[in-house]
Amino acid sequence: MKSVLCIFRAACFSPGMVERDEAILRAVGSRLQSAGYTMSFIHEEELTADTPMPDITLHMVRSPHALSILTLWEKAGCRVLNSTEGVRNAERETLAHLCAEQRITTPKTWIVDTANLNTSTVITTEGLHEAITFPCWVKRTGSCAQQPDDVCFASDINAYEQSIARLHARGIGKAVVMEHLEGVCIKFYAIQGTDFLHFLHAKKLGYDKFNANYSAYEKREEEHNKGEIAYQLPIAKLCQSLDEAKDLFKLKVYGGDAIIGPDGIARLIDLNDWPSFSACREKAADAIAQLVTMHE
Question: Which residue from 204, 205, 166, 188 is spatially nearest to 243, judged by alpha carbons?
Fold first, then answer.
């Protein structure tokens, strides 16, 4: 039977979530081991050019070094889930461009040079250049928040400039700025090629990677978004549009955040290349194991 290597995400990319992130990979590994696969587990920091290449790699890595090794493995015939291209596509700046290209519904988004606030490009399907509007959300580039200031709500230009200045002081050259939308914040989880889809109101998640009742980002979203509307159909439509663009996004195991506005449309605000699936771990592990075995 084939060998499978599971690679845990580095702690710096998983603040407050290390145990939850590890748990989903261990749950999938348990199912694959029962199916006869040879399993092994390492942490992202332990992956080196000398690590023996398995037949299949299930991973949550984010560092350029680890992704470069997995890219070589892909070229050598290893089946890597998610693909390294998919992981890079989930990074915020790249994601903004891909969503515009594929007409995935998102809030209006700008890419800002943190060294020059006058240098910003709005990413829209029409390719227009417009001034940033307030309130808005200021996010560091990359694939995930690593500390609370990586995602900030800016109610006005002063708060916006302060957020940009903090990112610049940390050596982060670009920021992704999203318009604030009224609506309900929903977390969703999907596994391409299966019928798995799970979603819930963000405030019901019940944990926080930055030590609040639920994540700092979700808490701020809830403070600034009011009202409840049905969200099953809007989320299903959003995931369908992501699935239809699968050849471009190249993600099979993913989750995200969306705002459902009064118009009933779900707009994508974040995409995670491999979430912890804490709200639905056992069912997600079944589906991911199914995804692995169905292609063998």
Answer: 188
Dist CA 259 CA 251 (whole Å): 21
**Strand pairing class (116-123; 197-201):** unpaired
The token duo for 43 is: 């942490």
CATH 3.30.470 residue spans of the chain: 97-105+182-273
DSSP-assigned beta bridge partners for residue 186 = 201, 258
CA 168 to chain centroid, in Å, comes to 23
d(CA 111, CA 155) in angstroms, rounded, equals: 18
DSSP-derived secondary structure letter, 12: G
pTM score: 0.88
Tokens matching residue 295: 């292609």
Q: Reduce the DSSP state of residue 252 to 3 states and report it.
A: coil
DSSP-assigned beta bridge partners for residue 81: 58
Residues of the chain short of pLDDT 70, as ranges, are 119-121, 123-129, 143-146, 148, 204-229, 296
Quote the pLDDT of residue 228.
42
What does the angle CA 209 – CA 224 – CA 219 come to, to the nearest 5 degrees? 15
DSSP assignment of 25-69, as one string? HHHHHHHHHHTT-EEEEEEGGG--TTSPP-SEEEE---SHHHHHH
Please measure the distance between the N-terminal and C-terminal CA atoms of the chain and give it in whole angstroms: 10
Do residues 196 and 190 touch, judged by C-beta distance below 8 A? yes
| CATH number, domain 3-82, options 3.60.110.10, 3.40.50.11950, 3.40.50.300, 3.30.1330.10 | 3.40.50.11950
